[in-house]
Amino acid sequence: MSAQPTVDWAAAGRWAGRVTPAGPTPSAAEAKAYVQSLRRAARRARALALEASGLATALGRPGAVTEPAAVLVVDRAGWSRVAAGSFQGMVEGRPLPGTTGQAGTVLALLATRVLGQFDPYGPGPAGGRLVVVAPNVLHAERTMRVVGRDFRLWVCAHEQTHALQFAAAPWLADHLRAEVDRLLQAVTSTPAGEELAAVAAGLRRVVRPGATWSVLDALPAGQREVVERVTAVMSLLEGHADVTMDAVRGIPTAPALRTRMERRRRSTAPIDVLLRRLLGLDVKLAQYRDGAGFVRAVREQGGPDALDAVWDSPDALPRPGEIADAGAWLRRVHG
Fold this sequence. Notes:
The protein is mostly helical. The chain has one domain. Helices cover 63% and strands 4% of the residues. It has 14 helices and 3 strands. The protein has helices at 9-19, 28-53, 56-59, 76-91, 100-111, 134-144, 148-168, 172-188, 192-206, 221-247, 254-265, 270-278, 281-302, 326-334; strands at residues 70-74, 116-119, 129-133. Strands 1-3-2 form a 3-stranded mixed β-sheet, with helices on both faces. α4 (76-91) crosses α5 and α13 (281-302) packs across α14.
C-alpha cells in the first residue's frame, strides 16, 4: 500500500487565513474598542461561570488548575492559525491522513462560523487559551439583533465554562488526546479504498431532501466506537456549558439570546444545511441539546451536586448510552 498523504497543520492554517473572508470591517477605532469589550467580557465571565457551573468543589481539589485561561481575541485568519496549532497539539505530531488542502478548506469554512473556543493544547500557561473570534461575534450580534453587551458576556461565559472544566479535570485533555490517538491508529490501518467508497456512498445521500447523513456515518465500526465515546464526552462538555451560560447572573436578555441562538443553529438556508452535514456540525448541535438534557437530568434525579463526580476520572465520564439515560450514569457512578 502506498503511503498516505498527511496534513501540514501550520501550512493549512496559513492557507485558510489567506482565503477566509475578513467579515465585518468596522473602523480602526471601533475595532479596537470592540476587542477591548470582548476582553472585558471574557475576564468578567470567568467569575460568573464559576458561580453558575457548580465546579467550585472540583476546582478546590488537589491537582486542579487554579491559573485562569489566557484570553486571545482574534480575527478569522488568526483563528485559523490557532485552530491549526490546536489540532497539531492534540495529535502530538502523529501524521493525520488527508491533505493539507483538505484541512485548510475545513478550517476556512469553520473560521466564518466559530464564535469562540477553549484551547487546552496550544502553547501558553497551564490554564490554556480562551479564543474569541471578534468578527464572528460582531456578525452574530448584528444578524441576530441582540443586545451586544449581553451577547458578548453570554458567549464568553460558555467558553469560560470549558476552561473551568479542563481546570477542574486536568486529566481531561490527555484523555481526549488518547482517544484521538486510538482513532488515528484505526484510520491509518484502514485501506484508503474502503474509506473513499464509504464517503462516496454517503455523499450521494447527503443532498437528498430530509437526509441526516454526515461524514461520520462513513466510519467503520471500530472507528465509530471511538467517535461515540468522544461524542459522549463532548456532549457533556457542551451541554454543561450551555446550561451554565443560561444560568449566569447579570445577563438580563439571556432568555432572548437562547431563543435566537437556537434559531441560528437550526438555520434552514441551503448552504447552512449542506455545511452542517459535510462538516459534521449536526452532530455538534446534537451535543449541545443532548448534553444539556443529561446535565439537567442528573441534577434533577441525583441532586444539585450529583454531577461533581464526573470530573473525578475518565471512568466517571458518561458512556455513549448514558447521555440519553442519566439514571444509568447515576446508578453506575453513584451506586
